[in-house]
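input
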Amino acid sequence: MGRVVEAASKIRIGYGLDESVQMGPLQAVVRKKRILDYIERGLEEGGRLVLDGRRFEIVGDYPEDCFLGPSIFEDVTPDMTIAQEEIFGPVMSVLRAEDLGEAIEMVNSSSYGNAASIFTGSGRASRRFQYEVQCGNIGINIGIAAPMAFFPFGGLKDSFFGDLHGQGRDAIDFFTERKVVIVRWF
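output
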């Protein structure tokens, strides 16, 4: 966990079109307030904030209005708000499972199903994860299963809005639940 916190703490925040910057601003001040409310809620419910994104430095001379740094919570349990809702901001909630079955159960018990990732050297575990997890985007040895423009993008369950994944071939597959699996082996 220490390497994740260290890497996240080095993310350069600033103007999104500056090539030296890794994370730009949020879309609006109201979005920042919403994410700050989630951070407060995570603390109130017993999460341990190991990286506090409320304290950050901006590359360049820009107002802090829409900027926020990455936050990482440890000791998160499935019943906490930050584990149950889609935050859509730079907040990572770490939940721990005893085994792969429990991890899959945690993912599937959520009413959301945008994306889930697993890091493993086991083909067996990756296949089980890919077939059993109820999410629209699956990452295997990929931190964020974010498809490129030619992949369909859309979650399952309450992470899906409308009746189509409206990009690429998915526009043809009306009312079909599909998964995108991105795999990297070392």
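quick obs: The two ends are 20 Å apart (CA to CA).
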